[in-house]
Amino acid sequence: MKLRLENIGKSYPLPNGNLEILKNLSLDANSGETIAVIGPSGVGKSTLLNIIGSLEPVSAGKALYNNVDISHLTERELASYRSSCVGFVFQDHHLLPQLSALENVLLPVLAYQLRTSEGKRESASMIFSLPPPPTNEEARKKAEEMLERVGMRDRMDFAPGKLSGGERQRVALARALINGAELLLCDEPTGNLDRDSAGGVISLLLELAREKNAGIIMVTHNHEHASKFQKCLKLNDGALQECSP
Amino acid sequence: MNFPRLSWKGILHYRATGLLICLGILIASATLTGSLVVGDSVRGSLRETVLRRLGNIDVAIFSTNLAPVSLTDHLDASSKFRQSYSHIVPVLQVIGNAVNLNTNQILPRINLIGIRSDFPLAYPSFRAPIPHERDVVVNETVANVLNLHVGDALMLHIPSMSAVPTDSLFGRRSKEDAASSLRVIVSAILPKNEGDFSLTASTGSTEDIYISREWLRMLIGEKEDCANIFLLVKSASGEDADAATVKSALERYAQLSDFGLNVTENTDHRYLNLQTDSIVMDNKVVQAAREAATDCGAYSTLSSIYLATQVSNTQNKNSLHYLVVAGVGDGLGISCPDNEILLNSWAYKRLLPKLGAALNVKFLAPDWMGTYEPRSLTLRYSGLTDPTGEGYDDGLVPTVPGITDEESIANWNPPFPINLGVVTPDDEAYWNTYRAAPKAFASLDTVKAMWLEGSMDSMKQWVTGVLALPRPIVGKAAHSPFTAQEMEALKATFIPALLHRLVEDNAGLSVLPVRQLALNAANGSTDFGGLFLGLGFFLVIASLLFSGVLMRLSGERRASEAGVLLALGFSPEESIRAIKLEGAMLSLFGALAGTGVGVAYAAFTLFLLSTKWRGAIGDTHLDLHLMLSSLFLGFFLSFFIAFLSMLFSLGRLTKRPALRLLRGETQEIHPVKKVTFAEKATQTVVLALALALFVSSTLFKLISGAESFFAIGALLLIAFLNGVRILLKRQYDRTITGSNLRRLALRNLSAGLLPSMAAIGLIAGGVFVLIAVAANVRVYHQGGLLSKTSGTGGYSLIVKTTLPVNSGKTLMGEGESANPQDAPLLRQCRIMPFLESPGDDISCLNLAAPEHPRLLGVSRAFMNADGFDISANSYSPNPWNLLVAAPKNNIIPAFADSDSAEWILQSGLGQTYEITLPNGEKQKIRFEGLLKHSVFASEILISESNFRKLFPEVSYPRYFLVQTPPGGQDQVSNALQRDLADYGVQIQTSRDFLNSIIAVQNTYISAFLALGGIGLLLGAAGLIAALLLNAWRRRKEFAMMLAIGFDKRDVVTLLLLEYGGILAIGLLTGTVTALIASYPEIISSDARINWQIILITLASFLVAGILPCLFAGKHIASQNIPIALKEE
Ligand SMILES: Nc1ncnc2c1ncn2[C@@H]1O[C@H](COP(=O)(O)OP(=O)(O)O)[C@@H](O)[C@H]1O
Ligand SMILES: [Mg+2]
After folding, report:
1. Which among B205, B225, B251 is the end of a domain?
2. Can you give the residue range of the structural domain that contains A59?
3. Counting CB atoms within 10 angstroms of each CB, which of B232, B237, B261, B324 has the fewest?
4. B568 and A108: CB-CB below 8 Å?
């Protein structure tokens, strides 16, 4: 995995001129690299993650993933990208309340299956080579393993409503990794958690990234957490600066 | 994991909302399916009734006059016919009235059916023994109405079935001759549905009494076995046989006697003479005969005879009494110019006129009052008829029972008064030798004038013979130029040609595919499916709206779900596929359950229709009929509508960027603009227009009825809503000072201007429709109906008789059976007679499509009296005159009740409509005028002369309108009831009749109000649900209010002010506009508005809206402030 942001800019049109959030921002991230992003509220941290996750387009510059400029991809290619390359963990867990923990973890597999079957039909235009999807049994086994790994195996049939905040984020973590994402995008994953569970989730996140050799870009306000990351960047005035946590 | 599973999980998790959405769809689907099932059931029930009443009968031959039953043998000679039809059953049917001799109860307009043992072949459900002699079998309806038991005695009165037109000189019109009475004994009562023999699809009960055909025939004085309807039953191999098969068999095998006609050749071989048993010939027969002559290359002309009471020589005072005057057309060699007269030598010898002398011809002209007016005309003597030929041939004179068949003049028994004192032995000697041979000849027009004298009606029949000859004879000819062989040859071609024409023109005998026609009528009946769909439309819309709003809200609530799926690698379409699938499943469940509930709803509606709402359908028996096609249609339709509305409400979600979805953001807040000049201008213009319309309609009555109501209503609604909009917009500009909750509420409403206005508009519209419809419930009072321009024309009684009233004297209390005391009272009344055709009621009281609309012939006197509320197609000082305008392209001008024309006939003012006459012929009419809410709701009105053209067999009126002296209505009614008892009289006040019509309308209105009321409540519930979910979205705002020091009561009050405000404003707007727009209806003295129900509906609407506000407010106000505020 190789992520490269080249001089990207992001602005929102407002009635009285553009609101510039990101200016000339560049960033490189590789497999196994863990990066913490800190910065005051409203500075554009979430925007940055969303750009990397292709939920939002850039206004200027290039966002390259494995040398593919994601800003030039079609809706479908973007969906493939989100499905196989990146995994999101939000501050609000965003688990579907109607599904059990296990089902929530299995949800990305469905998207992956859809993407690969689509890829088969339009093989020529595929940008991201997707390994064949798991069968349903394989997926289930994998999901159970994932839940086992995040320590939620015994509660895998619980609905999110019956889990604690920390437990929900563990499930969300399992969900982000089930398709073998190489880059985890975490937007204040512990923002709503108490100290102890927050610490647990961060350790788990780092452990998993190491095991899977995945990169992490995590937004946080917590300097203690940031210090556990290989790199700490501060978003200020639209650009990133190295900083010490 | 897959989408169906995902959706199913969603349904289970969000089951409360899901159930509500389902409920909405269920109600829509149930209303839709239920309406269709009601339609099917009404149609199916009618069909069943019609088929049951028809028995095995497929086709029927109707004879205008009585036809000999030998017709059956003639038809049987055709092998094609025998193959196609297994049975031909003659019956003798006549409309009469029956009186229970124990109770004196009268049942008018019963079908008296003369049958023999072959009747069950055509009508197998007749399982009683075939009646003999004085026995009769009655059906259940007759037994019920007259309280009859087996063994009871009945008196039957039936009209004469003589073929001779009763209004002519030779017609028998004394009470004994015009009607026959028979005392009979009930021998059996047929059980329900088993004795309702009927050939038409009219709904309602049939009153049938079965009697022996022989006995009935003898009762009406017929010597030969005869019938007037021949019922045909198809054989197994006759699948594709139809009326045409019968017609071609008739053409080839029927004989002239079957039509009551005969052809004789005169002794001189001069012409073939076609004559009828009815003395004068139907115009149709005349036309057919002349066409037939043309068909075989022959020449034809007409002849007519009249009886002169006296011919006297004005110079020498010599005179002759009771002599036949004949008139013949040109081409016979005996022509006589108009105003001239020829005598035979016998008459000449006795009158001895000089050539050119004036001869005075006296004759009698019967009029409707029952008198025979003496009339006379003066003709110039212009010569002798040929001494050996015409002068002494009685061939031109048709058989006149009681005259030509008598041995001597002294034995004559004519219907008119005769003075035998003036008859001399000389006259008797002539009679003895030459019988009725005409003693004088005049022109054809002169004799025609004698027939038509005293009648305003030029359509009266007067032709007594159609004469056919190989070619016209030029000039005078003493001897026939034709040979016996030539005449034989003519006869051999003329008679088949004549039969062909008669059958083709339905002259005398008409063949109708009664089963086909009746089924058509049953299928084309009032579309109750459409009707109930219309009545429940409000409910369908409200429930779909309810579901749509809930779907939309649940979609919005779950917007973040779509966002998550997008982030997980689903495409935008896939991200809402599961929610869509959920919607589809809910639509499916709702529609499916609704189809089931719809059947129950239909069953309940049918139950109401046969109990509480009986007024709308009369006596028709209704059963539930389920048709798979309708169930499928109802199901699929509601499923698709629900599914589409779901797609529509979710459609906007896909257009939101993923991020905003993730945040659960779906609504954009539109900045409110200032009140524009256009809005203010619209307001002024619309209000001014509404005011102008209101003033002109209520004060000056420039426009009226529905148009002004809709115009005023729509304008007012627009004005009010626009006003509210301006008001709300103004609020937004104001700065809120202090903690004024009312201000804050208004401000909040104006912040969400669009949803607020939509909700207000919706409520206002619904309330408007309900109140406006409710304001239309009406019951007529006496007061308004006395006016000449009302729907009664000022006539307060509708009198119908079973037997035609052939003498005006009867109506004036001067008839043979009249009560002399009644005469002074009846003389103060204005009684208007109408000729009435057989046929079906065209008012909403008849459910089946009228096969043969009933017509009334309107007399000149009635037209001259003017009156009624008519919208005419073109201007005329007296619009009734439009009826006598000359028909263009053979389209007869007609009037009808506007509601009947519009709803039942589906026609309108100025439109052409094709009616089918009972003999199957088509006739075009054009509605030149429509009467509003009139007593003529059941019939089409045409002028009397047009009427006689269509129905030559109807001579005397059976329908009367009576204008009574003030306060004398009941007395007059009683007097007429007494005097016309034997005629089988039915008297109804105009007011009762109009109320029976309006009862149907009122029934539909109450059905509409019931369904609409439920719709309104449902709409309110949906609206409130929507608003509450909106409030839920605003919970942070309320938490903030609590945090900054408002207390819980304030929050509840604010919610009530906002949402209660929307309800109240909508309710008020709708109510006020409806009240103003229906002001004319409301103040009308006929209005019967159920204010209680309206108030209860509106109040429950308000409560249904406000209670949830209260609960939700309490709930929201007691939420945990920090948590609510933290949720981001
Ligand atoms: N769709 C949008 N339109 C306009 N401004 C936006 C939009 N989305 C975010 N912003 C603005 O961009 C800025 C950065 O937001 P965000 O990336 O969420 O900040 P952070 O996550 O650092 O707190 C904020 O000031 C926010 O108001
Ligand atoms: Mg953020």
Report:
1. B251
2. 2-242
3. B237
4. yes
B790 and B900 inside one domain: yes
pTM for the predicted model, two decimal places: 0.76
Size of interface A-B (CB pairs under 8 A): 79
Residue B532 and residue B483 share a domain: no
What is the C-alpha separation between A227 and B469, in angstroms, rounded?
131
Q: What is the mean pLDDT of residues B38-53?
A: 86
Amino acid letter, residue B1080 = P
Asked if B246 and B271 sit in the same domain, the reply is no
Q: For residue B395, what are its two tokens? A: 């061939």
Contact between B856 and B835 under an 8 Å Cβ cutoff? The reply is yes
Helices (H), chain A: 45-52, 75-84, 101-121, 136-149, 165-177, 195-212, 223-226
In a domain, B512, yes or no: no
Characterize A145-162 residue by residue with b for buried, 16 or more Cβ atoms within 10 angstroms of its Cβ, and e for exposed.
ebbebbebeebbebbbee
Do B844 and B838 meet the contact criterion of CB atoms below 8 Å apart?
no
**pLDDT band for position B804 (cuts 50, 70, 90):** confident
Closest Cβ opposite residue A76 in set B563, B564, B571: B571
Q: Which residues of A touch B569 (CB under 8 A)?
A: 79-84, 108, 111-112, 115, 179
- Is residue B476 over pLDDT 50? yes
Ligand 1 center to A108 CA (angstroms): 27
Residue of A nearest to B662 (CA): A94
Distance CA A104, CA A207 (A): 22
**Residue B246: closest CA among B509, B520, B515:** B509
List the CATH number of the domain containing A204. Answer: 3.40.50.300
**Under-70 pLDDT residues of chain A:** 119-127, 245
Q: Please check whether residues B660 and B707 belong to one and the same domain.
A: no
Helix (H) or strand (E) run with residue B1066 in it:
helix B1061-1077
Pairing of strands B985-989, B465-469: unpaired
Cα distance between residue B1055 and residue B1065, in whole Å: 15
Residue identifier of the C-alpha nearest atom 17 of ligand 1: A44
Percentage of residues in chain B with pLDDT exceeding 70? 88
Three-class DSSP category at B56 = coil
User: Cα distance from A162 to chain B (closest Cα, Å)?
Assistant: 14
- The answer on B172 and B273 residing in a single domain is no
Give the total number of structural domains in chain A. 1
B378, part of any domain: yes
Query: Who lines ligand 1 at CB under 6 A?
Result: A 12, 19, 21, 41-47
Residues B381 and B474 occupy one common structural domain: yes
DSSP string, B382-425: EEEPPTTTGGG-GGGSPP-TTTTTSSSGGG---SS---GGG--H
Express each pLDDT in B129-150 by its tens digit: 899 888 999 988 889 888 889 9
Beta bridge partners of A18: A13
* Number of neighbouring beta carbons within 10 Å of residue B710: 12
Collapsing DSSP to helix, strand or coil, B732 comes out as helix
Distance from CA of B566 to the nearest CA of A (A): 7
Q: Name which of B550, B538, B541 is nearest B20 in CA terms.
A: B550
Last residue of a domain, one of B942, B972, B997: B997
Boundaries of domain holding B594: 1-55+521-665
Coil, helix or strand for B974?
helix
Atom 16 of ligand 1, nearest CA residue: A44
| Domains of chain B: total | 5
